[in-house]
Specification:
InterPro entries: RNMT_CmcI, SAM-dependent_MTases_sf. One of its GO terms (biological process) is lipid biosynthetic process. It is built from 7 helices and 7 strands; from the N terminus they run αβαβαβαβαβααββ. The chain is α/β, with parallel strands linked by helices and 186 residues long. The chain has a single domain, classed as Vaccinia Virus protein VP39 (Rossmann fold, 3-Layer(aba) Sandwich). Strands 3-2-1-4-5-7-6 form a 7-stranded mixed β-sheet, with helices on both faces. The longest helix is centred in the N-terminal third of the chain and has 13 residues.
Length: 186
Amino acid sequence: MLPFKVSPIGIPSALTWNDFAFITNFVDEIPINLFVEIGAYMGGLAAVMAYRTLYRPDFTYLGIEILDNKPHPVFKKELQRLTRADLIIGDCFDQEVKDRVKGFVSRAGCATILCDGQHKPREIIEYHEMLKPGDFLIVHDFSEEKMSKENPARIDVAPILSKPNFVEATPIEWQGMTSMFAIKKV
């Protein structure tokens, strides 16, 4: 079992309060119109983002989770009544899933993709290309130790992160306070 840190609305999450604060602040300050979460797991962050669609008419949430039995059943039921929130149960690397996300990203004003599944380096590689200028990619637990555990094939993400059309976008006030790392496509 994961060492869950918080349960914002009763659904456990592997994020810390600082991670939640970073994401909600980021979504509001930019402002983000589409938030895609790869690795929704039980739905702790997913529920917060999905309910945000009720209060922000310009905001859409799309989650992806490979394990159908992990998202909280009440959350899955609630999604049926939310018109701008959805959860894809499937592998984020399946072409059909990627095509669906790409369609959402292409129609959104400003999109953000959160890589928080079990294969973050591959998620970064396969999802960064669908971003438009002005869009963001956020990676949870972006550290050398965590990335090497999730990266047995030693996929090198440094070339992506150093491309001239991507710049680091983690606000200075959040650096060191959260395990999130953000880049912006320019």
